[in-house]
């Protein structure tokens, strides 16, 4: 592995980050097998693990904690996240001080450690002042429970606002961002990646295989892997995305590369990307991804990808991608009937 610096933190991380979302009830419920997968990734040189409290409702963190016992913790850059709901109580979620302090304590207990190297806010929350969030995170950093803080799926405007608030209030600032990025989803090239580079933020991009589409197991009229279909992901049957996959399969075959290797090499080629998160569910998945770790794409091949999916554009949208409230809620983008009638 050729290690990279995570933004300006000085922390060295591998270009592949092991994502733990598939460890637990949502993916691989076998704890011992999941631990073996984690150990193999670490033995291969991956030193960066990303999980979240929300993954299998804490089970993913518990599995990662088991895998890092017996002296492995000190050699791992460990990242987790908080924000998504962890119960029916409306206060067991979000970006408030009240919840983040509790969420971190719960994560540390499940992970079996006294600190995490990176604590990330899983999603933006417009109703919570970012100063409230940064103030709480600053106290947790000063308490030694967090080494660095980051965001996930934040729009460029909210990244900039958080940087300004941190500077003006003397608070710890976000050092990383975790956005979605793949050949099929290149929208972050337009603003998010340039903003992260401007502020010296590292990026660990998720879904470099486009939520499973760039594994080659989802093709037009012939799906050979139905595991992810149990999640009801619409992006797996999006005709525009499937058409693009067919062209990419041809491109990969011409380059004599597996589609997965092409996709991951593309993701870590961008100078604004620090690490790409891989999320194997089985040992076979991990073996395939590790086999492509040294893949380098030629400028000619990258030009062909640009011609197929222009820089800064998306072919459809991942179902798990963040949508701001103004996009999700019609009431925020339409005047009420009474207002229109009175105008």
Descriptive keywords:
343 residues
SSE topology sketch:
Blueprint: E1 4-5, E2 12-13, E3 16-19, H1 31-43, E4 48-50, H2 59-67, E5 77-82, H3 97-111, E6 116-121, H4 130-142, E7 146-152, H5 156-169, E8 176-178, H6 192-198, E9 202-205, E10 218-219, E11 222-223, H7 239-254, H8 259-269, E12 275-278, H9 283-291, H10 299-308, H11 325-328, H12 337-342
Parallel strand pairs: 3-4, 3-12, 4-5, 5-6, 6-7, 7-8, 8-9, 9-12
Antiparallel strand pairs: 1-2, 10-11
What does this structure look like?
- Strands 3-4-5-6-7-8-9-12 form an eight-stranded parallel barrel, surrounded by five helices.
- The model is unreliable at 227-232 (pLDDT under 50).
- The chain is an alpha/beta fold.
- Helix 1 packs across helix 2 (59-67) and helix 7 (239-254) packs antiparallel against helix 10 (299-308).
- It contains twelve helices and twelve strands.
The CA-CA distance between the termini, in Å, is 63 Å
Structural class: alpha/beta
Q: Helical proportion? A: 25-40%
What is the chain-wise order of helices and strands? Answer: EEEHEHEHEHEHEHEEEHHEHHHH
The overall average pLDDT, rounded, is 92
Biggest pleated-sheet summary: 8 strands, parallel, barrel
Outline:
The chain is an alpha/beta fold.
